[in-house]
Design brief:
It is globular, with a radius of gyration of 22 Å. Strand 5 and strand 6 form a beta hairpin. Helix 1 packs across helix 2, helix 1 crosses helix 4 and helix 3 crosses helix 4. It contains four helices and 16 strands. The chain starts with 11 loop residues before the first strand and ends in a 22-residue tail after the last strand. The longest helix has 16 residues. The chain is an alpha+beta fold.
Length: about 300
């Protein structure tokens, strides 16, 4: 992850090695029976860690729209008689950041725009008795010592009591019942537990640009504190140290690729290093300090 950069609590420090990648999300649509189909492909949003540019859409005869805003995406619509491979490409410039996460406790009066991140949802059952029992049994004793905050107490409890198991489940209540789970299931337990404790939290799905797997999927959380969202992962074992090669694509159960209508939809992600951007030329200076003639 490179050299550690230190800053006051909550401050972000950019390092001097931005990375650029070209990402292609290829989607294969088949078995639609010539019936209408709609496929939505999530795009990453710009933030302090990443900048997206050069979006390229290859619709292969389907209609396509690029949707901007808080949840950017590309939408494909049309009919497919046999099979069709469409794709979305983009450039992502990453600027590594190191964030020192302060002590995080439930906010007394959270603003309206984060209330959605406190509500229960089917994938994040924060009002479930299983979630509350987990907090009472494994988190409350950690808080009694007084030397940790709510975020770190929940994070440590899930890491210890709900280890990763490749045969485990992905739904949070199944993970709590069995005492182990898949990475995605453990992250969903974190989302539900934080919300149950009164801390706004998002579940995030993204890609690992350095992964050799077909979909390169990664999962983590974001927690809200004092006007800022901080990345956190129980499966990765980090708080604030989002890996440099992680790019967020979807939040709170939104799918990276979602289809509506008939047919089978499969996707893969291809990543290649992007060429460096050209450096803009600056006027040459004459010996006396004036600009050279013709500039």
């Amino acid at each position: 992850l490179g050299a550690e950069a230190f800053a006051p609590d909550g401050a972000a420090v950019a390092e001097d090695d931005p990375r650029a990648w070209h990402v292609t999300i290829a989607v294969r649509i088949s078995d639609t029976g010539d019936k209408p189909v709609e496929v939505r492909v999530a795009l990453p949003a710009d933030d302090e860690r990443q900048r997206i540019s050069g979006i390229e859409v290859r619709p292969r005869g389907l209609k396509s729209d690029v949707v901007r805003g808080a949840e950017p995406e590309v939408v494909f619509r049309g009919r497919v008689s046999d099979s069709r491979r469409v794709s979305v490409g983009f450039r992502v410039d990453r600027t590594p950041l190191r964030v020192t996460v302060p002590a995080v406790q439930p906010p007394a009066d959270p603003p309206l725009d984060v209330l959605e991140a406190l509500r229960p949802a089917p994938l994040y059952p924060s009002r479930s008795i299983l979630v509350r029992e987990f907090l009472e049994t494994h988190v409350a004793p950690r808080l009694q010592s007084g030397d940790t905050d709510m975020l770190r107490a929940i994070h440590a409890a899930i890491r210890k009591e709900l280890p990763y198991d490749k045969t485990g489940k992905s739904l949070p209540l199944d993970v709590l019942r069995r005492g182990h789970g898949l990475r995605i299931g453990r992250e969903r337990v974190l989302t539900a537990s934080l919300r149950s404790a009164g801390i706004p939290a998002h579940f995030v799905e993204g890609i690992d640009l350095s992964s050799s797997t077909r979909r390169k999927r990664r999962f983590w959380n974001e927690v809200w504190h004092d006007g800022r969202w901080y990345p956190v992962s129980v499966s990765g074992g980090w708080i604030g140290r989002l890996p440099d090669d992680y790019v967020a694509l979807a939040v709170d159960g939104r799918r990276v690729v979602k289809s509506e209508g008939a047919g089978v939809v499969e996707y893969s992600v291809v990543v290649q290093p992007a060429p460096a951007r050209p450096v803009e030329a600056t006027p040459a200076a004459a010996a006396d300090g004036s600009e050279a003639e013709g500039s």
